[in-house]
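Example 601, ligand adenosine-5'-diphosphate.
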Amino acid sequence: MPATAPTADTALPFTPDDALAVLKTVFGYPAFRGQQAEVVAHVAAGGNAFVLMPTGGGKSLCYQVPALLRGGVTVVISPLIALMHDQVAALTRRGVRAAMLNSTLTRDDTARVERAVRDGGISLLYLSPERLVTARCLSLLAASPLALFAIDEAHCISEWGHDFRPEYLSLSLLHERFPCVPRIALTATADAQTRAEIVQRLHLGDGRVFLSSFDRPNIRYRVVEKRNVHTQLLAFIRQRHAGKTGVVYCQSRSKVEETAAFLDAHGISALPYHAGLSASARQDNQAWFLERRGVVMVATIAFGMGIDKADVRFVAHIDVPRSVEGYYQETGRAGRDGLPAEAWMAYSPHDAEPLYQQIRQSSASGVRRLIQASKLDAVLALSETAECRRVRLLRYFGESSRACGACDTCTNPPRSADATPAVRRLLACIKAERQQANAGQVIGALRADGRTPCEEEWRAIVRQCVALGIVAIDHETGGALKWTSESSGVFGERRKIVLRRWRAPRKATEVKHRTRPPRDLGTYATLLVRLRAWRADRARQLGVPVHVVFHDATLMEIARRQPRWRWTLGRIPGVGANKRAAFGDDILKLVAGVVARTRRR
Ligand code: ADP
Ligand code: ZN
């Protein structure tokens, strides 16, 4: 049974001076920052709390100082063993009795820590949620003088959170098993839904919520249209951050390797970091990055949790992030020293397609998939916005703000145009489909009457309307487009909807191969799909691998050039005289058919 936990309504046992004394003597800081003092006072007095504070805001002190003031054992639940290790080491250096229990400990060490915990000889005990729920650990805690539970990275408990971890669900047992021990939940990112879920699952309803501003005024946000991303990245670093420390985030391990090698070959000291590297290589690269100036870390999102380096001057995303929370957390690693820093992203809507596909095909539950898809929608909306990036980013976290005057949309407003007629057609079509059709179906219906815009442009219009709140995507019903409370206003006489002008995006791979982008993406894509299907058939008939019929690059070139004659077909690289003789008629017929059909639309 918990021994010494006072309840929230006991008289304040600590004065602000006591807290300040701990801050100074133990941690060596002269003053609390932001809301720290308030949180510390509330939690030290035994209150439950939910703390939402941006990365680098100083969440750790919010429970470490109360832990020392309250005496007894504060249990810190943290998802990553590596993070625990760093925290325990840092506390120990400051003379705080801190320990962790996890699988890396020997049996003797485990027994020693357990004894110390039971005797109250440990002030801060770090545990993973998996460890916490073991019978052995629960009985240890029941026999120990508990002071406080601190749940770090609390968004992991929410299925809406961008980083849901099922193990965290078991934490709802804390209030049942230890009703007298106060709880403080901390996170750096949570949208409204995630917040509500944290409060509900951890029974923090009676606690205080401490919301800090998410604004990072020294970070300048920029999104550029992705073309040849390596060249763009290199120019960005050379022109704006030569010799400076930075992080480049990529989606895949191979992209990390490629990009780091590319930068390195161009005289920028870049290191790779991803989960596929050995633990020691990761450690070395991380240490090198932390200890030196001017190193660029090229990484997957595996990199960064708990990284506290003050002089990161830029964070670049060369692939689309999967959630606004992730983007915010990653970009938040820039400019911790308060000096100007940049968050730069190279964006192409094409990047999102494979991510949506992965989500659709994943083995996660239906609800999970819908949540993931709507998180990705929000990233696209942020990328496509014609509004101030900072305003949009902060609005995502429920904060209103004014245009920053520094981001790309503020300094260089996108070319935009009155799209009211198109938006009205879109809304009318959504209604005609009784709000049950998804974007693809609605766009299909719109295009059936043969007018422009093209499919890609319609998609951009839909994304922007979603971003503006004129259209909603109902992920619970397979992505059906719906009207919102704003929709009918669009039909008002004077209402004008200005959207970012759409331009055909160029695919990075095509730029690399020095080809021009296809004129009409719809035809190109359809043709490519049909060509591949045809190739698969022929390969089967002939009993050969598909690339023996035609290489992918050749099919792409055919789809792009859409040849009408045998001689133009023959000039496409990869179509020799033999292949032209064998497959020429098939190809020309296929191309003509698809082109005629898509033109007619
Ligand atoms: P978070 O967990 O919110 O990302 P941390 O607790 O790791 O942030 O703190 C970020 C950095 O700010 C750390 O280096 C920490 O020592 C420092 N810090 C936190 N609070 C203060 C303070 N009151 N005064 C000075 N430095 C602080
Ligand atoms: Zn702005």
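Summary: Residues 1-11, 506-519 have pLDDT under 50 and may be disordered.
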